[in-house]
């Protein structure tokens, strides 16, 4: 079930093609948790160079995908509505499975801590129920257009 589609996601976060990686949001409890989906397809531009003949989604882009899902969760939290979330730190990132064309990444994000302009989340990217990546991400939340 889709709670948010691509256009609603782009209305909330500033990412655009070719670097908007969330296809839709499955579940959302504002300020608490989100489940989102990224369909990984062979026509993704990064597969041309990573790696020819053995296409694998780069770990940095898995983290970016998790960060985009997390920013949706954060920006749907009542205290952060209408603001922009900036990735401030990546902690304890672990890559356990390769992500390949045809995989469906399920992104599970849980809010750990919220402060005046800070959000910390625990993230997990799964393929077929197996953990591909996990990390703790910290975001700084500012008014749109402010300098961080």
From TrEMBL:
The keyword Lipid metabolism applies. It is found in: Cytoplasm. InterPro entries: FabA_FabZ (IPR013114), FabZ (IPR010084), HotDog_dom_sf (IPR029069). It comes from Ligilactobacillus pabuli. Belongs to the thioester dehydratase family. FabZ subfamily. The active site is at 50. It is an enzyme of class 4 (lyase). Transmembrane segments: none annotated. Keywords: Cytoplasm, Lipid A biosynthesis, Lipid biosynthesis, Lipid metabolism, Lyase. It comes from the Bacteria. Involved in unsaturated fatty acids biosynthesis. Catalyzes the dehydration of short chain beta-hydroxyacyl-ACPs and long chain saturated and unsaturated beta-hydroxyacyl-ACPs. It catalyses: a (3R)-hydroxyacyl-[ACP] = a (2E)-enoyl-[ACP] + H2O. HAMAP family: FabZ (MF_00406). Its EC number is 4.2.1.59. Its main location: cytoplasm. This is 3-hydroxyacyl-[acyl-carrier-protein] dehydratase FabZ. The gene is fabA.
């Amino acid at each position: 079930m889709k709670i948010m589609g691509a256009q609603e996601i782009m209305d909330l976060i500033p990412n655009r093609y070719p670097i908007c990686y969330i296809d839709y949001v499955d579940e959302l409890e504002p300020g608490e948790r989100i489940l989102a989906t990224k369909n990984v397809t062979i026509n993704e531009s990064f597969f041309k160079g990573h790696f020819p003949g053995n296409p694998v989604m780069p770990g940095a882009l898995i983290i970016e995908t998790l960060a985009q899902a997390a920013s949706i969760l954060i920006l749907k939290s009542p205290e952060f509505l209408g603001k922009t979330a900036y990735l401030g730190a990546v902690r304890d990132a672990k890559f356990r499975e390769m992500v390949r064309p045809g995989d469906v990444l399920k992104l599970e994000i849980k809010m750990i801590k919220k402060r005046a302009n800070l959000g910390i989340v625990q993230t997990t990217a799964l393929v077929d129920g197996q953990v591909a990546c996990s990390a703790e991400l910290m975001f700084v939340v500012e008014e749109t257009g402010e300098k961080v």
